[in-house]
Amino acid sequence: MALIVQKFGGSSVADAERVFNVAGRVTDAYKEGNSVVVVVSAQGDTTDDLIEKAREINTNASKREMDMLLSSGEQISIALLAMAIQKLGFPVISLTGWQAGFVTDSRSGDARIQTINTERIAAELDRRNIVVVAGFQGLDRFDNITTLGRGGSDTSAVALAAALKADKCEIYTDVDGVYTADPRIVPDAKKLSEITYDEMLELASLGANVLHNRSVEMAKKYNVKLEVKSSFERIEGTVVKEVTNVEKMLIRGVTRDNNVARIAIIGLDDKPGVAFKVFSALAKENINVDMILQSIGREDSKDIVFTVTKDNVDKTMAVLNELKPALGAKEIQHRDDMSKVSIVGAGMVNNPGVAAGMFEALYDAGINIHMISTSEIKVSTLINVRNAEKAVQVIHDKFNV
Amino acid sequence: MALIVQKFGGSSVADAERVFNVAGRVTDAYKEGNSVVVVVSAQGDTTDDLIEKAREINTNASKREMDMLLSSGEQISIALLAMAIQKLGFPVISLTGWQAGFVTDSRSGDARIQTINTERIAAELDRRNIVVVAGFQGLDRFDNITTLGRGGSDTSAVALAAALKADKCEIYTDVDGVYTADPRIVPDAKKLSEITYDEMLELASLGANVLHNRSVEMAKKYNVKLEVKSSFERIEGTVVKEVTNVEKMLIRGVTRDNNVARIAIIGLDDKPGVAFKVFSALAKENINVDMILQSIGREDSKDIVFTVTKDNVDKTMAVLNELKPALGAKEIQHRDDMSKVSIVGAGMVNNPGVAAGMFEALYDAGINIHMISTSEIKVSTLINVRNAEKAVQVIHDKFNV
Fold it and tell me: CATH 3.30.70.260: which residues of chain B?
């Protein structure tokens, strides 16, 4: 009999009917003789409703108080799920983040898990209780409630699976697994039965939107066997683990990410240290830079082009405009109508033909490439957003994924 | 400079505007140089909404999970109030019941406060923070969140004032103080500037609905100076304390309580132990009995008549009907159309004319008295509910309160 950690997101517990659906999944696993720990997020729109309440009062409230507010959302959903499990006749107890032993640092709103004291959960499992844990939250060493930021509940589940040495961590979502492309764009996209952590990391960061990177990184670090499954359909999902059989399928997936903007610094002095100045200034403001391209321009000047997420455009432009005189830059431009389309697959590094095939597919479709970046297991291209769906389709066709 | 505990109920923080009203009251006290601890309840209908959510899932959920659910309500309101205080530019921190150190027993849904560990609050006050505390909740020694049941937030505030040795505990409510009668019934009712704990206890239990008895009992026990004030109007309220100047005004108030039903057990055997059997059976079912009247009936039988709250009528009748053969009772009756009208005043015990004056007022108004009960500081009469408002008025007039 195994120890299983299950995680259900906010839409999976949005109303009473869905809460009972989750309770059914949980108790089925329990009935098979497993020990079950369930991590849940806040119900459907609860978090948004709470944020709206806060905005009516103070748009600039401290993150510490935002965490106090938002963490009530999961507290509601764990209680309701526990009640549904009771209704089905099973022993259960709900635990908030701090009751479950989640200790984090003090970065309110974006805290990192430092350790999990699992005594309470272990004791409840010993009593054969199903344990329902509030995701997304913990407690810092000064006894303040913290939240984990984006992807927090996935991270809670994986961290808990690692701390409990669980046999498996099942992440239940709206989709039924990881696909070779977004099935809404590419109707013949195929579901992957297995994928490696690294591939999943690339897919997640490229906008596949199934699992948050933080949780995959943690799963990789502690070798937690993940499975991405559907909350609603009872079918096999996609298993994420260290090694998979990569022989047969070279390309794991084609993704697009529209949350991308291109920043161009034109006519920089061609002197050493210019790139350092730019990117250290951005790092200081916590702005993540993705694709970077540096070109020698005409005469003694060069251009630096890079991408950031759309919500960072204003901050980036502010940093760069302040820096402009020191850089000796002629002009700073930004464009929002971009999309990053990528192919991911662990076998790619040994197959130089993959990138070429991708560019060919785009060329055949008349799609212009603005930037290119590659890693060991992916090739990304920046293109105009109006071509993004078409690009995903033609690349998927090209490789016959 | 004083240490003040303020308590605001759910309707006082029902929306953003009201939250700012409370924030204004709190920061005014702080600006005067006081240390301020604020206890708040859940916003307006939050608790009812949460109960409804639970009912959709499980009408028989464990109290432990109900407490987990309901305690999220105050967590929301403390965060929002803290945000409003931040917006006004003052240093503030919100604390849940357990963060504030409330330790209770394990009676989920109706827990008693055992102790309050005030280190955290004291530390925050030392930093000159305004401290916003979630009322109504605590933590048992197994780290389970508990709620305090009816009147819980008043009790939280008074207990905190006692533990912190606060100079004053201000209870803000919909009304602006304690009146000699309900101003909606008796237009010339007067607001009392002072009242003793015992008088307040009688008034509270008699349906004056201003302060919950539990909180007044605790205030009396720890000699906490209470003040009942309006949340909305900035005027003096009523101070509740140990000794007041009772010389001038004999009668503190006239109250009525319509939440009362009369139960009559007719034709009991006139044997010892009958009353014991009846009231121990009711006590076992947690049914509180109020006025009791035992009369010798005709021949060798007697009647027992007593009152309970209306919501306990069904349970009481069930208990008594089961007991009926053992008691040898002829008949068990109940009446719901009753009201208890009372006068309260600490000086009453030495003034036998008070009860007589009350009965005279009722007689003059043609109002029939069903039952009478007296204590050191009150006289209560059970009358037909249709006469209740008139009774309050004529008694108030009689004593020219």
Answer: 262-335, 338-399
Sign of CA dihedral A27, A31, A32, A35: positive
Say if the ipTM goes beyond 0.90: no
**pTM (two decimals):** 0.80
Q: Which of B16, B57, B60 sits opposite A56 (nearest CB)?
A: B16
The phi-psi region of residue A382 (left if phi > 0; otherwise alpha if psi is between -120 and 50; otherwise beta) is: beta
| Beta-ladder partners of A179 | A191
Fold designation for A338-399: Alpha-Beta Plaits (3.30.70)
pLDDT greater than 80 at residue A296: no
Strand partners, A36: A4
DSSP string, B92-153: EEEE-TTTTTEEE-S-TTS--EEEE--HHHHHHHHTT-EEEEETTEEE-TTS-EEE--TTHH
The answer to whether the Cβ–Cβ distance between A58 and B93 falls below 8 Å is: no
Q: Is B79 within 8 Å of A72 when comparing Cβ atoms?
A: yes
Residue A240 and residue A210 in contact, taking contact as beta carbons nearer than 8 Å: no
B3-173: CATH topology is: Carbamate kinase (3.40.1160)
Which amino acid, one-letter code, is at A267? G
Chain-centroid distance of CA B392 in Å reads: 20
Q: How far is B138 from chain A (nearest CA, A)?
A: 14
| CA A44 – CA B171 distance, rounded (Å) | 36
Residue in chain B lying closest to A15 (CA): B53
Nearest to B68 among A16, A65, A75 (CB): A75
Decide if A17 touches B, using CB distance below 8 A: no
pLDDT value of residue B347: 67
* pLDDT of the residue at A213: 83
Most confident listed range (A213-217, B31-35, B212-216, B346-350): B31-35
For residue A20, give the chain B residue with the closest CA.
B57
Sign for the CA dihedral angle at B185, B190, B191, B197 comes to negative
A161 near A224, Cβ under 8 Å?
Answer: yes
Which position has the token pair 């979502």?
A: A173
CA distance A187 to A288: 33
Q: Strand order of the sheet with strand B130-134?
A: B92-95, B130-134, B35-40, B3-8, B168-173, B226-230, B238-241, B194-196
Spatial strand order in the sheet of A292-296: A292-296, A301-308, A261-269, A331-335
Interface test with A, best of B17, B47, B80, B131 (most A CBs within 10 A): B80
Domain B262-335: give its CATH architecture. Answer: 2-Layer Sandwich (3.30)
Q: Is B121 exposed, middle or buried (0-12, 13-18, 19+ CB in 10 A)?
A: buried
Specify the domain boundaries for CATH 3.40.1160.10 within chain B: 3-173
